[in-house]
UniProtKB/TrEMBL annotation:
Name of the protein described by the UniProt record: Jasmonic acid-amido synthetase JAR1
InterPro entries to which the protein is assigned, alphabetical: GH3, GH3_C, GH3_M
Domain of life assignment: Eukaryota
GO molecular function annotations of the record: ligase activity
Membership in a protein family: Belongs to the IAA-amido conjugating enzyme family.
């Protein structure tokens, strides 16, 4: 039996999950009934004529599929202080701000206690499965987690990113304690006002407690890679701080300084040890297990837009396993990774049937039409016919629709998932991509995944010169006739012109969509352009988003820059050092 400190028995957590997933259809019906009962008074449901009915047929007949756009006016009224039952029976008192990095702008979404509860449920569930395979001992976790700025909406509601709302909730700490996963850094570091100072102090606290660290984690894997890229630059300064027990003057925030200084005592022995370990490493391979000898694994979301960081993470991780974390969004959680032994590339998520009511639009059967909006092209479907959670088929791709306890009804999340199997009777999903098309000039259709694969293929050519792509994004440039794809690349060094020309041609050839190839051959799409940007450009983009209220914990590099994202485009264009046009076609 697993040892616990807060009375949570993780064997029981697994048993409950097994029982619930064996009965997923019934649990889904009950969950829908409960959501509709609790929110029967909500103006939104009343207006749709549901009249307190809680059965599936009435729900499907009366409630339409919606996107965030349709719900936005209701959410805005809540944010503006209207406390009548608008979307939920009980008034919403907190608003989450989605990262906005996938869609270009942050969105407001309702947040409530039920979302906190389902977050804790999913944390406990995946931990229970993880700990069965990779048990951790008593100790601490080096968690690169950061809160965003919290602010009040016009109506006085607390607003912040969903992760911030969770980190600030008392249940977060008690759940982490029960999982023996408390963050080694004090709260002042997590909630500090300045990201670089918080990051530096997370690293410092990790080193102070290096023998206690049981695992290294972040919400999205990008934050861990970013942290160790920074470590490569500041490790000597960290050693100095530890040697003399004196925090660098670069950390100026008084609350962070006070909290971290309390932990810092002169320790020349530890400083020497870290110094000699770092000096011995070859190109920082395996730095994480070297610094944290008792760490059992690395944990964070490594799927979807995080996949491009997995290679670098593996490099830092050496022989430590990478465990991919769960699947969710600001709107709510969806599934837990209950097969932690699978590598990130094949990680899947078993849907928790009691945290929401889930429907799936089969993509194969959908009539797709490409429509341009300001951001990018979007796939719209004509008369989509969603199926229920237990009706999905293995091997098929679906767009996911969520109904939850926080006032979202038949809400199109915008994600495409693939069913790769079943855990009892609940499906295991793999994340495929956002539904929005990323790159399209005319008849071509390329998603975030297509871009990622093209970049991966082309980046292999850099290996010859021991270089790598630090980060990337893209744009469709319509200022030329015809329009063409532009790929922005930041690398960790200077590549030769010959190699970069090869990379550019390889990128162009790696978009295997028939529409793209056809249009390129007849000249209806111009030659792909590779623009190399200076080192540090993507850090500037991250800083720009942080300035808008985003949180590092939820940051995802935008993979396509639409015309409405002028500021980011400007940052990129100012930093271009070379540009190459493909001669592949
Ligand atoms: P946000 O609410 O802005 O933090 O973004 C939520 C989005 O992040 C989801 O809709 C997904 O597109 C993406 N996401 C969240 N979890 C995962 C995961 N485990 N794998 C891949 N993508 C994910």
């Amino acid at each position: 039996m697993l040892d616990t400190t807060e009375g949570v028995n993780f064997d029981i957590v697994i048993d409950e999950f097994e029982a619930m997933t064996k009965d997923a259809k019934r649990v889904q019906e009950e969950t829908l009934k409960k959501i509709l009962e609790e929110n029967a008074e909500a103006e939104y449901l009343q207006k749709l004529g549901l009249k307190g009915k809680t059965d599936l047929e009435s729900f499907k007949t009366h409630v339409p599929l919606v996107t965030h756009q349709e719900l936005a006016p209701y959410i805005q009224r809540i944010a503006d202080g209207d406390s009548s039952p608008i979307l939920t029976g009980k008034p919403i008192t907190t608003i989450s701000l989605s990262s906005g990095t996938t869609q270009g702008r942050p969105k407001y979404v309702p947040f409530n206690d039920e979302l906190v509860e389902s977050t804790m449920q999913i944390y406990r569930t995946s931990f229970a499965f993880r700990n069965r395979e990779y048990p951790i001992g008593r100790g601490k976790a080096l968690q690169f987690i950061y809160s965003s700025k919290q602010f009040k909406t016009k109506g006085g509601l607390a607003a912040g990113t969903a992760t911030t709302n969770v980190f600030r909730n008392a249940q977060f700490k008690s759940t982490m304690r029960a999982m023996q996963s408390l963050c080694c850094s004090p709260d002042e570091v997590i909630f500090g006002p300045d990201f670089p100072q918080s990051l530096y102090c997370h690293l410092l606290c990790g080193l102070i407690f290096c023998n206690d660290i049981q695992f290294v984690s972040s919400t999205f894997a990008h934050s861990i890679v970013h942290a160790f890229r920074t470590f490569e630059l500041v490790w000597k300064e960290l050693c100095n701080d530890i040697r003399y027990g004196d925090l660098t003057s670069q950390v100026t925030d008084t609350s962070i300084r006070a909290a971290v200084s309390k932990l810092l005592k002169p320790d020349p022995e530890l400083a020497d040890l870290i110094y000699s370990k770092c000096s011995r490493l070859s190109n920082w391979y395996g730095v994480i297990p070297e610094l944290f000898p008792n760490a059992k694994y690395i944990y964070g979301i490594m799927t979807g837009s995080m996949e491009p960081y997995v290679k670098k993470l593996r490099h830092y991780a050496g022989d430590l396993p990478l465990l991919s974390a769960d699947y969710g969004s600001s709107e709510g959680w969806i599934g837990a990774n209950v097969n932690p032994k699978l590598p990130p590339e094949s990680a899947s998520f078993a849907v928790l049937p009691n945290i929401g009511y889930f429907e799936f639009i089969p993509l194969g059967a959908m009539t797709e039409i490409s429509v341009k909006d300001n951001e990018s092209s979007t796939l719209l479907c004509v008369d989509p016919k969603p199926v229920g959670l237990t009706e999905v088929k293995v091997g098929e791709e679906y767009e996911i629709i969520v109904t939850n306890f926080a006032g979202l009804y038949r809400y199109r999340l915008g994600d495409v998932v693939k069913v790769v199997g079943f855990h009892n009777s609940t499906p295991e999903l793999q994340f495929i991509c956002r539904r929005n098309l990323l790159l399209t000039v005319n008849i071509d259709k390329n998603t975030e995944k297509d871009l990622q694969l093209a970049v991966e293929a082309a980046a292999k050519l850099l290996g010859k010169e021991m270089l790598e792509v630090v980060d990337f994004t893209s744009q469709v440039d319509f200022s030329t006739e015809p329009g063409h794809y532009v790929i922005f690349w930041e690398m960790n060094g200077q590549a030769s012109e010959e190699i970069l020309r090869g990379c550019c041609n390889c990128l162009d050839r790696s978009f295997v969509d028939a529409g793209y190839i056809g249009a390129r051959k007849v000249g209806a799409i111009g030659a792909l352009e590779l623009r190399v940007v200076r080192r540090g450009t993507f850090q500037k983009i991250l800083n720009y988003y942080l300035g808008l209220g985003a949180a590092v914990s939820q940051f995802k590099t935008p993979r396509c820059i639409g015309p409405s994202n002028n500021m980011v485009l400007q940052i990129l264009c100012n930093e271009v050092t070379y540009s190459y046009f493909s001669t592949a076609f």
